[in-house]
Structures are given as C-alpha cells and as structure tokens.
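Notebook entry, cofactor series.
This is the third protein in the set we're modelling with a bound small molecule. For this one the ligand is magnesium ion. I'm keeping the input format identical across the series so the outputs can be compared line by line later. Sequence and SMILES below, as received.
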Amino acid sequence: MSGDRYEMVVGLEVHVQLLTRTKAFCNCSTGFGAPPNLHTCPVCLGLPGALPVLNATAVRLAARAAIALECVVEEVSAFARKNYFYPDLPKGYQITQYDRPLAKGGHLSIGRNKDGTPVRIGITRVHIEEDAGKSLHDRYPGATAIDLNRAGVPLIEIVSEPDIRSSLEAGAYLGTLKQILEYVRVSDVSMEEGSLRVDANISTRLRGDVELGTKTEIKNLNSFSAVERALDAEFARQCAILERGEKVTQQTMLWDASRLEVRPSRVKEGSHDYRYFPDPDLLPLVLDKTWIGEVKQEMPELPAARQERLAATYGLAEAQIADLAANPDRSDYFEAVARAHGEPRTAANWVLGEVLAVLNETKQRIEHFPVRPADLARLLDMIRDGLVSHSAAKRIFVRMVDTGDRPEQIAEREGLLQVGDDAALLAWIDAVLAEHPEESQRFAAGERKLQGVLVGLVMKRSGGRADPRRVNQLLASRAGAGT
Amino acid sequence: MSPRPLADYAAAEVRDAIVAGALAPSDAVDASLRRADETGAGKDGLNLVLWSDPAASRQDARAAGAALERADGAGRLFGVPVMVKDNIATDRLPTTCASRILAGYVSPFEATAVRRLREAGAVVVGKTNCDEFAMGSSTEYGAWGPARNPLDPTRVTGGSSGGSAGAVAAGLVRIALGSETGGSVRQPASFCGVVGIKPTYGRVSRWGLVAFASSLDQIGVFGRTVDDAALGLEIIAGRDPLDSTSAERPVPSYREATYDSLDGLVIGRPREYFPTTLDPRIRALCDRAADALEKLGAKVKEVSLPHTGLAIPVYYIIAPAEASSNLARFDGARYGLRIEGDALRAMYDATRSGGFGPEVTRRILLGTYVLSAGYYDAYYRKAQEVRSLIAEDFRTVFEDGVDLLLTPTTPSAAFELGSVSVPYEMYLSDIFTATANLAGVPAMSLPVGRVAGLPVGAQLIAPYFEESRMLGAAYALERTLGDEAHR
Amino acid sequence: MSIAPDDVRHIAALARLALDEGRLPSLVEELNVILAHMKVLQGVDTEGVIGAAGVGASGTPLRADVGAPIQLSMPLDQIAPRMRDGFFLVPRLDTHGELGASVAGEP
Ligand SMILES: [Mg+2]
Ligand SMILES: [Zn+2]
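Returned structure with ligand:
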C-alpha cells in the first residue's frame, strides 16, 4: 500500500475566537445567536468615516494564549490590512497581523513517541485578527444573506510549523491545543458556535525524503474529525497522483463533509492578491516588558502541571487523571468533590461515570451542571456512611440533576434512606423466602451461590432501601441456621 | 439689528453680540442663508454648497436661542453658522463625498469635529462641494459639477475643499471645515483669499471624516481671518477615544496666541520652495510677508529641506495605495449606490465602475497596482522610507533652532476652470503643501496679496503640535499686512 | 517598470472595477506617465531608513472591553439597498456553497 511508502507533511492554521465581551475594534457585543445585524455599529458595518480602536482584553487574551504555547510575545507588533472583496467582509479588508505578528516561535507537546521522546509541534506564530460576518447562501433564492453580528469578533490565528506527520497527530495537536486554550481561559473553543476553525496545508513525500512536496490547502474544516478525515482523503489523493508519476498541483481544496471528500475550489489560483499593508488607522501595538511579565504572572495552571499535581495529590490511575484533566472545569469540579468528600477514588469514579454520562447526554458544560460539587460530595458521604444504598444513590443523583435539590432532601422525600433495622430487614427476607420456596430450600440446604440472587430479590422488594451488607449477613445466618 | 453687515462680524463677535442681546440667536444663521441666495452659492451658481436645509438650520438656531434663555449654554460658537465639507459625516444633511456612489447617503452618525462645533453652539448651514472623495486640487471633479471661485467665477476655487474655501470667501460663513490629505485646505484657501489650517496629524479626530488616505488625512479649518480659523480649530481639536490616531495632548487656547512682537522668532525660508521657476510675483509677495515678519522682530534665514522634491511621487504612491483600500467598502452591499447584476461579481463591478468618477478610478487602479504582489517593495515600501526622510528634513531644521517655516502655498494663483487636464500636472499644485501631510506637521495658508487680481497665500509650517506658535505669527502678519493682504 | 494593458485588466479585476476596453489604452498611458514620475524614488538611498509609521510612538491606544455600542441614528434598512428579515441581501455569489464565513476560508 502506497501509504506506507509516503508520508504526509502537515501544518495547521487554527482560528480561535477570544472570550471578550465586545468586538476587537468596536463596542458591539460578541454575543452568539442574536437576530441578524443586531450587534453592529458604524465600525463593524464599515460605514464611511468609522475607525477602529483595539480592545485591551483581546490583546491580553491573545498574549496569554501565546505564552501558553511558549511563544515569545513581541514588544512591538503591527496590524495590517488584508484586502479582498467578499460580502461578509464589510470594509473590503480584514484587519489582521502580517509581517509583525503578536508572538512567534512556540511549540506544543502532543504526547510521546514509541521511544518515549515527546512529540513536539512547532508554533510559527500567533496573531490577532478580526472575524468576518456570515454569508447564508441557501436562505433566499438567488440571493446571499449577510449577517454581520460576527464581523469584527476578535480571533487569534495560531499557525503551526509543518511538523505534523499523520491525521492522528493532527487530531492530537488540535485536542491538546483546545485543552490548553480552555485552561488559560482564552476561548470557549466551541465548534458549534464557530469559535474554532481550521485550515490545513498538506504535502506528500517519500518517507526519508528531506525535500517537501507541493502543498495544497484544505479549507472549510470545522470539526476535529473533519480535519482528520480530510487529511486522510487528501493524502490518499496526493499519493495516487505521485504513484502515477504525476505532480501535485498547488491549489485550494474544499472539504465536503456530506460526501466525505475533498475537491478543488473553483476559485482560480493566483486570483488573490491580498495587497497587505500596515493599517494606517492603528498605530503599532506596543507592549512593555512589565505588562508581558504581568500576563505571565497571571497564567493559570496548564494541563501538564495540573495532571502532575492530580497524580501527586490524589494517587489516581494515569488514565483517570488524563480524563479528569481533559478540561479545567472538569478537573476543578473533581477536586472540589474530592476535597469535600475525602475519598478521591470514589469522587473520580462518580465524576467520570455518572456526571460525564449526564453531561454528554444533555450536552451541558460542567460549569453549568445543576449538581454542585458540595452536594455530590454529600451524596458520596451518605453512601460511605451507609445512609443510602449504591443503587438508591444513583436514583437520588438523577433527581439531583433534575431538581438541583440536596441529596438528603431527595432521599427523605422519596423514602430512599437505607433501612438497616433487623426487624424490617427480616420481614423482607421472610417474605422473599416464602415467595420462592424452592430456592429457599436449596439455599437452606447449603447452596450458597443462591445468596446473591436472594439479596437481589430482597433489595427489589425493599425498593432499594435495604442495607445490602446487613441483608447478606442476615441471610448468611439463615443459611447457617437452616435444617 | 446692527448697522454693520453681519458678514463682517467675526465668529467670536457673533457669539458675543448674541449673548449681549445685540443680535437674536438666529440672526447670523438667517443672514448666512440670505447671503447664500444672493451670491448664488447653490448648484446653478457658484456650486459651493451641495446640500442645505434652511428650515432645519433656522430650527437649530431657534433651539439654540431657547437654550440660551435657559442659560445653560452660550457656547463659544453660539449662533454662528458654519459649513462642512461633503466628506465629513453630519447626521441630517447628506454626506456624499461628491460621489455618485454615495448619492443621497445620509450618515447615521456624526463626525466628532461636527459634534464639537454643534456642542459649542454652531449651526451647520450647508455641506460644501469638493473633488470626489477629496481627490483633486480644483473642486472640478465632484459628481455634482465644478465649484466656481467667488472672486472670479471663470476660475477654480482650488481643492479638494473648494466649496468650503469659496463659502468663506463669499461671506456665507466665517468658519468652515475642510479636509487635507495633500494640501486640500491650504491650496483652496490660497486660491480664495482666506485662511486655511491643516493641524498636526492627530490634533483633530478623524472620526466621521470619510477616509481617503488615513495616514495623511486631517480635518482642517477655514476662517475669514486668522481669528475665525483659530477659534474653529480650538473647538474641534483634542483627543477622541474613537480615533486611535488622535493625540493625547491638551489643547491650548489658540486665540490667545497673538504676539505683539516676534522678537527672537527664527523663521526659515526653505530654498526648495522658492525654485528659480517660481512665478516672480508670488516670490515677491512672500518676500513682502517675510519683510513684515522681520519688521516685527523675527529673524528670517534661508534653510534647506533637501527631500522636498520627492514629496509628489511619494504622495502619489501612498495616498492612492491607502485610498484603494479605504474605498473598497463602497461595494453596493450595505449602503450607497447599488447597480444590480445577476451575480455578486457583476453587482460589485457595475456599482463601483458606475459609482466612481475617472480620477477616483485612476487612483484606485494606481493604488491597487503599487500594493500588488511584486510591486509593494519598489513602490509602497520605498515611498514610506522616503517619507521618513521628508519628515526628518523638518525635524532637522526645527531642531536647528528654526521656529517656523515660511513658503508660498501654491506655485500659481487660481487657474481657469478646465485648464488643467493632465493628471500629473494637476498633482503638481500640491507641490508645496504635500510635504506637511507626509511629515504630519501643522501648516496653514493666509492671504498675503494678489497676482493679477487673484489672491495668493503664504504658508507657515510649524513643528508638531506647535499650532499656537504658527497662529501667533499669523495673527501678527495679518495685522501688519492689513489690507495689503487682499491687494 | 511600465504597466501593460493586461496589468491594468488584472488590477481592475482586483479592485472590482469593470473597465471599458475603449478607455483602456488612454488609462494605460496615464498610469505610465504617473509611474514614470515615481522612478526618481528608486535612486534615493534609503539604506537603514525605517518606513514612516504614524505620528506618536507610544503605540495604539487600547479600549476597555466594556461600554455601550455606538448607536445609529436611523435603522439599517434606511441606508441599505436591500434588506430582508434583518439580513443585507446581495446577488448570490457565483461560487456559492463553497464557503461560509470568509475569514478561515476567504474566496
Ligand atoms: Mg487569518
Ligand atoms: Zn460594531
């Protein structure tokens, strides 16, 4: 198979929306989901006579992202205009950074090679730019509808070196990048709201070759899986071309997610000439050393440090730690539960089990989860103290998700507190034995393996309230006392 | 009513007379509107004023009167009529930049300079004619026809702010706003015999000034006298958080900058501005102005600004480059003219070709070319570097103890309508003015005499933010020349 | 460097200006005359000179990430050539369907 003889060489350009309240160059809201063109003003509509003024928070967040990616933040960078016509680009140019980006020369570790050395992907640059609006081509026949609510929303573009060698690595790079950006609270990196978009540059060469092949650029990638699939598809296409002894043409490819294929863009190559030049409406962005130092100071814990600390503090399995640390809010949640409850293993099992299941099902974010860490910890306390059974606890948890109520209230209200009183338990046991005379006799005769079945029946009869440990003990003594 | 004609009242006098009760708050506005009718300032006459709404202006003046009675605001321009160039956003009258592409466009927001004038009590009585998007030096190339010089209607007003210069010259208003990119206030001020100031880049907010070349553009002020212009500048100057390039610097009272004596002031006479080819009559008028300054105690000495001759080539690379980008927003999608086409591209092409006139088209093409792949370094980058050398020339002479520079404003007096048709020849009218825009330093033109009955201005150029020094000398020169300045 | 008719066609396309072919020869000439005057710059020694970057060295001012947006004094449909349901409408892009927002994938 040709894929073994060739390797792909990939660099990614990732656009991420910054978590600001207002746009990059005007005071309009960055809020998602408003009626069309509601969040617009003279600046982001590109009205004649309007001028941009840079958002301080956009600069701070961009610098924080750059530092998290171990880039050098430049003391002087500059904004440029990228000129092209498109109806969602109101000024006829995008304000971006070109020859003097905000930050350069970072890298990202995405795991380990087989020999244990870290796989590091170089980060060429991080720069600030503004987003375009939205063009809706299918809403009205014969017309394109333009919504400029997004126009001017601040983005950073993170450009990697061509260090990626497989679609798997591309996926790992994106996953790690997303995780870091979430940790430093620069972006909520939500794909549905379009706050992360990817362009991929890919070329193919024979394994062992040093020289790079001709690259193509794949645009329109708006999910991680789209990136991986598009890279595989384009790699296969390029391999086939090379196998036939032909040459890859430099061009822009578009990923068609519905047909799972890449096809060449119909736009003529070379028809763009963006005529970049320094934006005369903005002076250079000057950041002094003290300010850059401050941003470094306020950097939150990064994923690698968080994982190390979780391992040292809670002594959990490596896989669990990786899952817990996948995003900062999840691991914050876990830590709050673990600290309040005192048994990290149980806390980890519940967070990664019950809690994640609900979040996945309901597509919620953990920071908005109705069950507060203190209440979950309380529920775990109740299990440990024998106040509720494990199965009752699961039912209580479901009600906590629905109502946000405290576990004690629910347990009491729904009669789910565990019954440990011998008289009541013996009454249930007797009733179960009476209902199942045959099993009862075999059990009494010493068929010990029936004990589990009988405990289950007692639990069922009690509506989950019976304390299973005591039921076991009582049943065992029945077996012993049998004929 | 006063026996003096209202047009003879300085802007500051109008305000004082209203506050003193000698004039009604709407008298000056009424007089301005009457004067516009008498002089034929509209489309069928001198074509100085493109848009006006007399009823609304009278209403504004009455509203100002009511405010005075409530004693909560007799601003420094109380009841003073002003006019504004058609490329500066006003929120009631149209703002078309004299371009078909903005026919009928009324801006949904207002320029900071206009707001400041209104807040000082001024009433905007008209929008004035200009070259389309301020690209021109004669006010012949607007979509709504050429403006005519009130002193000789067969001649141009100069440009691009010719309508504002002409409106002041014709006595419609004492203060009018123009805009400068390469001399568009000073050159028409010279041609119309009025005072025109181009402030330091960053002194006046560009918010609401429709961009031509952002790194050069600056709103400027015309006045009938130095005092009218100084008053106007004092009001519109100052930091504006809406303009990133506006300077964080206190605004002195420019009207207090009057000097009785110019003792110790060193005035440089840059030899590059007095070439042997210069019209000797213009040279003589500048010499007379220099003599007047010397009599007041100033020392006039010859200096050199060696890169002056490169200003026009540099200017005609940088200005069109920025313009090609600034004018991309006029695409028919969101406002202004749209000429429909069956597809998006056809709409763009039809709208922009139909909307822009020949000079604007030429400059967009030139600007697109000098920024395009393969040419950027040779043209745009090189021009920016030479621009630094031009700015350095000024820095050097000012550091060498020169306080101000005195030059002719223009190489000629107002020419006849239609007489300059070769683009590059027209570009050369900015030969003495473009340097100040490229360097960002403040400069002004004031009348110093006439050539064959046509006014000619002299130019004063000052270091960054030294408008007060420049105006102080201008006040003194104006006073000393007296009526000679208009003879 | 002199500019040829094809260069003018190319830059006109970049600038979205439809040129009248009849006007092309005179336009080419006008532009060449202007560009010929620019040649003098090539002879200027600018070794070590940094291009101008605006007056004021303290850098671009920053605004706080708060505050009310600038209000328009009239609704958008009073200035827009064509609007529907709050959207600006333009004729459909010839290559539509290829792109969503243009920044991560401009035309
Ligand atoms: Mg980008
Ligand atoms: Zn906005």
